[in-house]
């Protein structure tokens, strides 16, 4: 016969014995109740969505860690490393036990759901995962080898608007129409035997609206959005991480999967695997892969030039005079009453800012405004002219980087 304590006796005293030791204790103390373990359980989100109520138990004593929310959220946020909650779900009482422990790769955790029958436990776990699987009013961000919901990033995208975006010619209409038509055209694709999928690449120097356009699209398309922030990990390979990325995206189709700064994320080491994932036919139906790059010359031609991978390429170039005039005109209207800045001066400034990106144009206005506030009696347009000369000199030595999609404090008018 196999001994009942084979796992705990053989694994002890290593950390790998923690899980079987917990289950041994549960089996000895739960009587007729049943339990089931799961590696992840977004209980807080399930509660926030209104599907159950929970109460933190005082015994066993919960172990929590309090972290500061930061300057924009000046309060302590508690997270529990070890805890037990009583759960009220559909008139049924269950318990959820969580435990966390340190490993060589960071923190690991496991949840045990305890109920009167295995059917109740199973139904609860399945319903929780189904209800919390979609991002909802969040964007899924991939960083550190796992996905996290970002409510903050979602709210940032909801503030983005194509009305604040100045692009050359008909570029804005072309982008919006392309994606909207694609989402509405699934029956047509299928009737023609063409895979209903899309790959689009936004190309151009930093500071010219790529990130703003991505955010405005996320808001307008109203489908689940996933954002890849990094593909590095101390234990998993980049291929492992890409596999997780595409696996999660395929669960949420139709959805948009965003790779910002593609040239930095896809390297020689993971390029072949990335190409293999992009080339999926049936498995990528309904998947929009949207990537941005400041450096197309760093991207392998097999990615850049093969139509089946990124069949749409949109170029975000430095603004011409007409775009600079329109952009500065928006600021002039906003600031005219306070500063005395008039339309003709904005047009003059547009002529003098040849070679400025939208990011530099914004910096010109904002930095001039701050300087004008502290220079009593100065004419605002004179400050603008002086600052324009300083920034032109700065442009020769310090390129301004475009704000990333993931930055919590990003100004959506970039």
What proportion of the residues form beta strands (DSSP E)? Answer: 15-25%
Instruction: Name the CATH class of the largest domain.
Output: Alpha Beta
Number of strands: 13
In CATH terms, the superfamily of the largest domain is: P-loop containing nucleotide triphosphate hydrolases
How many separate domains make up the residues? Answer: 3
Largest sheet: 7 strands, mixed
What is the CATH architecture descriptor of the largest domain?
3-Layer(aba) Sandwich
Shape by Cα distribution: elongated
Radius of gyration, CA atoms, in whole angstroms = 27 Å
Uncertain runs are: 406-414
Individual helix count: 16
Biggest sheet strand order reads: 8-7-10-11-12-9-13
At the fold tier of CATH, the topology name of the largest domain is Rossmann fold
Structural class comes to: alpha/beta
- Percent in helix: 40-55%
Order of helices and strands: HHEHEEEEEHEEHHHEHEHEHHEHEHHHH
The overall pLDDT, averaged over residues, is: 88
What is the distance, rounded to the nearest whole angstrom, between the alpha carbons of the first and last residues?
A: 69 Å
Q: How would you characterize this protein structure?
A:
It is a single chain. The protein is an alpha/beta fold and 414 residues long. The protein has helices at residues 6-11, 18-29, 43-48, 118-133, 151-159, 171-184, 186-191, 210-221, 238-251, 262-265, 271-278, 301-304, 321-339, 343-352, 358-374, 380-395, and strands at residues 34-38, 53-56, 63-68, 76-89, 92-103, 106-115, 139-143, 146-150, 198-203, 225-228, 255-259, 287-293, 312-315. The strands form 2 sheets. A 7-stranded mixed sheet has the order 8-7-10-11-12-9-13, with helices on both faces. Helix 9 (238-251) links the parallel strand 10 and strand 11 (255-259).
């Amino acid at each position: 016969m196999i001994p009942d304590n084979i796992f705990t006796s053989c694994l002890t005293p290593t950390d790998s014995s923690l899980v079987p030791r917990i289950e041994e204790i549960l089996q000895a103390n739960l009587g007729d109740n049943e339990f089931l373990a799961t590696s992840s359980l977004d209980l807080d989100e399930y509660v926030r969505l209104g599907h159950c109520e929970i109460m933190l138990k005082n015994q066993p004593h919960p172990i929590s860690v309090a972290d500061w929310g930061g300057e924009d959220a000046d309060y302590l946020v508690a997270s529990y490393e070890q805890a037990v909650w009583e759960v009220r779900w559909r008139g049924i009482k269950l318990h959820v036990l969580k435990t966390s422990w340190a490993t060589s790769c960071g923190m690991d955790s496991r949840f045990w759901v305890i109920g009167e029958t295995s059917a109740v436990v199973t139904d609860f776990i399945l319903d929780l995962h189904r209800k919390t699987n979609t991002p909802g009013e969040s964007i899924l961000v991939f960083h550190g080898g796992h996905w996290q919901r970002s409510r903050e990033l979602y709210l940032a995208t909801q503030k983005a608007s194509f009305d604040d975006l100045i692009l050359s010619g008909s570029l804005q209409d072309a982008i919006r129409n392309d994606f909207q038509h694609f989402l509405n055209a699934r029956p047509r694709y299928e009737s023609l035997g063409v895979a209903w999928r899309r790959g689009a690449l936004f190309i151009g120097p930093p500071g010219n609206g790529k990130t703003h356009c991505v955010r405005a699209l996320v808001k307008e398309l109203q489908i689940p959005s996933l954002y890849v922030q990094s593909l590095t990990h101390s234990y998993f390979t980049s291929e492992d991480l890409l596999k997780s990325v595409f696996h999660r995206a395929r669960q949420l189709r139709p959805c948009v999967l965003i790779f910002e700064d593609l040239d930095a994320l896809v390297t020689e080491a993971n390029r072949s695997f990335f190409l293999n994932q992009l080339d999926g036919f049936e498995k990528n139906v309904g998947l929009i892969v949207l990537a941005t790059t400041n450096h197309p010359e760093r991207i392998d031609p097999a990615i850049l030039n093969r139509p089946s991978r990124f069949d749409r390429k949109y170029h975000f170039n430095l603004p011409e005079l007409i775009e600079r005039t329109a952009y500065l005109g928006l600021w002039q209207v906003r600031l005219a009453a306070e500063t005395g800045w008039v339309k003709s001066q904005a047009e003059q400034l547009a002529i003098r800012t040849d070679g400025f990106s939208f990011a530099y144009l914004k910096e010109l206005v904002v930095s001039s405004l701050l300087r004008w506030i502290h220079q009593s009696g100065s004419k605002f347009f004179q400050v603008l002219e002086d600052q324009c000369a300083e920034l032109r000199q700065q442009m020769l030595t310090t390129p301004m980087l475009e704000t990333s999609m993931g930055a919590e404090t990003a100004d959506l008018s970039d």
